Amino acid sequence: MQLANPNLLKLQNYINGEWRDGASTIDVRDPANGELLAQVADGSAADAEAAVAAASAAFPAWKSKTAAERAAVLKRWYQLIMDNADDLARILTLEQGKPLAEAKGEIVYGASFIEWFAEECRRAYGQTIPTHNPAMRLSTIRQPVGVVTCITPWNFPNAMITRKAAPALAAGCTVVIKPAVETPLSALALCQLAEEAGLPKGTINMVVGTDAPGIGQVLTQDARVAKFTFTGSTNVGKLLMAQCASTVKKMSMELGGNAPFIVFDDADLDTAVAACVATKFRNAGQTCVSTNRIYVHEAVHDEFVVKLRAAVAEMKIGHGCDDGVSVGPVIHRRAAERVNGLVQDAIAAGAKVELGGDYLPHGENYYAPTLITGVTDEMRIAREEIFGPLAPVQKFSDEDDVVRRANETPYGLAAYVMSENIRRANRVVEALEYGMVACNTGVFSTAVAPFGGSKESGIGREGGVEGMAEFYETKYCCFGA
Ligand code: NAD
């Protein structure tokens, strides 16, 4: 792998400020062509225990630093990430597959959480509470929760780590991270830069490993861990929540979604199509906030489909490092097969493929950007998280009815509303049972605002003041006479 800064290519686990080998190695491959990129140490449950011990030992000193001292280290980390953004983007594209411009966007987005939380930790104010008894004085202080463990997915291998580690470290917590085995290189490069930034040994630790259940058990059940934070599928999230119960850990869960995208007859269709493309085809549709069900009012349905079809037909498919590519491979063959299964199921139930609908000759992990019409709420495509470059369109005729259909899912992560009517937009935004609703845009996530879901899409928020609060314990202090 050609990098301007070869130090970023780390192949070992990072525990207590040391780079450690595993008993064996994991092959890391380019999903675009199967090429072997690197072999990374395969960490174990014992490594996870060592990492938790290191984080636990580092916690007292790190929490005792002033917020300004912690912020200074984090700002150096932020700056090093920005200085190395081109290399980090290249690593990300090679191991994950997304186009280079998107990978660069993720690096900058991921770094923005570090910068923002470095600033926000200086405002960890408590309260003085008007007393209920003249002889008593009441107040609150906010203190870091303690050791935080994190498990992250492969679809945003940089930002899903910084969204957790930045507020945790800023608050004064220490962290242990288990990144996805598909994308360890982006994760380990972050540790290298954290070390260069001056994060003390043990404050940030990383264990990559194929034994996810074994490592996961340590991270969710070790009594020294105060909080567990997870991003990934709802099924695995439920399992890990159950594991956390034995020691009553604090938890944050960023899980799967089934986002509705509602286009009303008063929408600006060009805006709607641009938003739909951004939310549906970014990262080849492998985004938790990806549009999953496109509901278009019957009066504008045909025009919308023509415009969306034209936009999708223009997409350049190929290796993420090649110029102008807007859609790369999906993460592995299983993912492509899953998408194809959903397409075949929809066709069998009467849906019509307008474009795509098949594998591509570019490589075994490529699936054509696909547009399907005639979809119904009963099809698997509408009920399951698609996680691929597949846009299914349905018709609707009534506002109340489409809101009801949009809400009829156990998921509650993101939803989209396209309308130029301010009253309708407000009404529908408020009626949708989702943690996040975007109106007339397909891109909304930022470090300054709370990201997260309701229902089975999760617990807690990342980003904004809410994201910071996740890592504090509020202590009530009562002083008697
Ligand atoms: P996944 O749940 O299969 O894996 C996520 C992480 O959990 C990986 O690191 C994996 O190794 C680990 N893991 C798997 N089984 C485990 C176990 N038994 N014990 C401990 N760890 C285990 O999810 P994925 O396929 O990597 O990611 C895609 C999913 O993540 C989608 O459902 C997507 O919606 C969701 N996601 C959600 C958000 C959000 O913010 N809500 C963001 C990105 C992705």
How would you describe this structure to a colleague?
The protein is 39% helix and 21% strand. The protein contains 15 helices and 22 strands. With 481 residues, the protein is of the alpha/beta class. The protein folds into two domains: 250 residues, Aldehyde Dehydrogenase, Chain A, domain 1; 189 residues, Aldehyde Dehydrogenase, Chain A, domain 2 (3-Layer(aba) Sandwich), CATH 3.40.309. Helix 2 packs antiparallel against helix 4, helix 2 packs across helix 6 and helix 7 packs across helix 8. Nicotinamide-adenine-dinucleotide (NAD) binds next to helix 7 and helix 8. Pfam families: Aldedh.
Entry summary:
With 481 residues, the protein is α/β, with parallel strands linked by helices. 39% of the residues lie in helices and 21% in strands.
Question: Which short descriptors sum up this protein?
Answer:
single chain, 481 residues, alpha/beta, Aldehyde Dehydrogenase, Chain A, domain 1, Aldehyde Dehydrogenase, Chain A, domain 2, 6-stranded mixed beta sheet, globular, binds nicotinamide-adenine-dinucleotide, succinate-semialdehyde dehydrogenase (NAD+) activity, oxidoreductase, Ald_DH/histidinol_DH
